[in-house]
Amino acid sequence: MARRPIIAGNWKMNNTIADGVKLVKELAPLVKDNKTVDIVVCPTATALAGVGEAIKGTNIALGAQNVHWEKSGAYTGEISTDMLKEVGATYCVLGHSERRDYFGETDEGVNKRARAAFAAGITPIICCGESLQIREAGNYINHVVSQVNAALDGFTAAEVAKLVIAYEPIWAIGTGKTATFEQAEEVCKAIREAVEKKFDKNAAEAIRIQYGGSVKPATIKDLMAQPNVDGALVGGAALNAKDFSEIVNF
Ligand code: 13P
Hints:
Layout: E1 6-10, H1 17-31, E2 38-42, H2 48-54, E3 60-64, H3 81-86, E4 89-94, H4 97-103, H5 107-119, E5 123-128, H6 132-137, H7 140-151, H8 157-160, E6 164-167, H9 181-198, H10 201-206, E7 208-212, H11 217-224, E8 231-234, H12 241-248
Parallel strand pairs: 1-2, 1-8, 2-3, 3-4, 4-5, 5-6, 6-7, 7-8
Helix pairs in contact: 1-2, 1-12, 7-9, 11-12
The structure holds 1,3-dihydroxyacetonephosphate (13P).
1,3-dihydroxyacetonephosphate binds at residues 10, 96, 168, 173-174, 212-215, 233-237.
């Protein structure tokens, strides 16, 4: 079964509203003829509404960078699913290694966020990935599979089929050190096998798995040629309309 590629730009803590609107206005004409890839931009919380307006009527979808599991209440600094839906976000990056490493996000929290997002009709892009230390110790597959298993707890197989996982080795993020295509494929394949084991073959065949970590126009084609890589989660190169459009139009 052919999976539709999904390429998302994670802007992280970059771009004011004005910067973000300018970026998507440049991006939209460069990707407008692309009918084969799901294209997503994930601005900061303050720029979601403005960027959401600016991409109305285009083939670019809006994603957030986090969401809370409660509907509302005393959760200072958090954002609810209703708030994301109000601005038109249909995707949400969850469990990014920067959230896990700098802000103490746990596997359990990522699972709660993912379930709340999905239940609200927002597709989670669930991130996983190992540190250099874990990579060098050799137990990276176990580490990543355990993150994925924890994030997918409580979902049904039919639901899992609609999710997106992003494999982002931490040592490849923002370092210019892309994983080799073989390294990306090895882990994305292991994730798909883990999904089959925990759920079923249909879920494993349908779930989309992105690679992230220093993806550039020069590396996207070979990454996308890997059988288990269905897209990319792009950081730095997504801040430039031309670069991101070249990645999307690989
Ligand atoms: P870079 O593309 O800047 O390495 O970032 C990857 C990333 O973390 C996307 O979520």
